[in-house]
Amino acid sequence: MLNILITNDDGIRAKGLRTLIEIARPFGNITVVAPQDPMSGMGHAITVSRPLRLNLLKKEENYQEYVCVGTPVDCVKMGLRIPLENQNVDLVLSGINHGSNASSNVIYSGTMGAAIEASIEGVKSIGFSLLDYHHDADFMQAADFMRKIIADVIETQIPRGISLNVNIPKAKKEDIKGIKICTQADAHWVEEYLARKDPWNGDYYWLAGEFVDGNVSEDSDIYALKQNYISIVPVQYDLTAFDMIEKLKHLNL
Amino acid sequence: MLNILITNDDGIRAKGLRTLIEIARPFGNITVVAPQDPMSGMGHAITVSRPLRLNLLKKEENYQEYVCVGTPVDCVKMGLRIPLENQNVDLVLSGINHGSNASSNVIYSGTMGAAIEASIEGVKSIGFSLLDYHHDADFMQAADFMRKIIADVIETQIPRGISLNVNIPKAKKEDIKGIKICTQADAHWVEEYLARKDPWNGDYYWLAGEFVDGNVSEDSDIYALKQNYISIVPVQYDLTAFDMIEKLKHLNL
């Protein structure tokens, strides 16, 4: 039986995690290690200056569930080293995130942080996100597509260092047109800080903003999602900008 | 005069930040926005579920210093939008980090998270790290090289989306051989969790481990640093694994 580790960044109580567990369970032995609290925006953060906690919540045949006081990346690191110590792990699944991780969102995403961590550790991984921020979003519309992606990834050789960033449009099952392999769109957030006063007249701020698609290319994830396709971007953690190497070598550095 | 924003991930009291401020001050108007607490390992994390604070600590001619209750990426976002609102910012400097951010450390690094955030926002940026974790490390041995790198970057066209990951060997000034443009080495951490008991017999864990260089290529940062060169890796935030796009298109997805 396959050994599958599941995590997310919306926390152990999130509906998206429960849907992913339901979809993944028929594929093998499931170990869930999910954060105690919501961890949106945690990117690839790890906990180094505080101790970590990992507590078993549930154990039954082919299923165990732990809650972790840590980030999504901590969940993957702890999951592989404590409950799954000395075991071969076949797949790490992360999500289903409440909200888009397309385009540059991948950088800030705890969901994708967890998937990327698995790829660094040599385990195949998929991060799933639905373009619906609602806590009660309907994650089952794309369930058949997700089963197909998981089954295909299990059968496919994927090099170490590559994870898959899967984003699902907010659409009814019958309106989802299919799956496209995409590039990361060059879109971005336009942000501002909203200032508030606390009861002692001190300033504090909330980060707010909107995502601007701009003029994205036709091979990008944002473009595919707008056409109601599920987008898959293969993601690597080698950040080297190879194009720049020769250019910089010509500098006077 | 140039407008320069400085941040770090070791927090506002870190010696490395003070050295970077000292080195950068002759280059222009300096705005420091640094985290209140140490933020090592925060990667590209942003604060979304709690309010942020930004407090002015010091203001004098061509210099202002703020402390931020947030991550290094929050510091860059807030710095550009609050004290430097509506101003053209020429350069973001991050560091000098106490410890290496070479190879895959770039992914976990708050220092580089801040530099990458600047590159997303279209501002030139450099993250500096010294391969010495000591809180009282001697950051001045490489000061002449750092001045040269900053001066050269100011004069150079660098495309949006590219930041520079500069790592400095722990060596005396006279032993540093020069500067090399490098790729991100394919080296990694071998980690374990050390279990402890709290006074109520509850388990908790500390992440521990060592970085294993392995068989790194001669064009990589780790290799250059071992030869006592300063390494510069141009870093991009487009994570698309382009090599994989065609391979995945042939799948049955």
Give the helices and strands of chain A as they follow along the chain. EHEEEHEHHEHEEEEHEH
Largest interface: A-B, 73 and 74 residues
Could you tell me the strand content of chain A as a percent range? 25-35%
* Number of distinct helices of chain A: 7
Portion in helices of chain A: 10-25%
- Oligomeric state of this protein: homodimer
Q: Ranges of chain A with pLDDT <50 over ≥5 residues?
A: none
Extended strand count of chain A: 11
* Average pLDDT over all residues of chain A: 95
Mind summarizing the main beta sheet of chain A? 9 strands, mixed
User: Strand arrangement, largest sheet of chain A?
Assistant: 3-4-2-1-5-6-7-11-8
From the alpha-carbon coordinates, what is the Rg of chain A to the nearest angstrom?
A: 19 Å
Secondary structure class of chain A reads alpha/beta
- Roughly how many Å apart are the termini of chain A? 55 Å
Shape of chain A: globular
Protein architecture, described:
Two copies of one chain form a homodimer. The first copy, chain A, is an alpha/beta fold. Chain A is built from seven helices and eleven strands. The first copy, chain A, has a nine-stranded mixed β-sheet with strand order 3-4-2-1-5-6-7-11-8, with helices on both faces. In chain A, helix 2 (72-81) runs parallel beside helix 4. Chain A is globular and about 55 Å long.
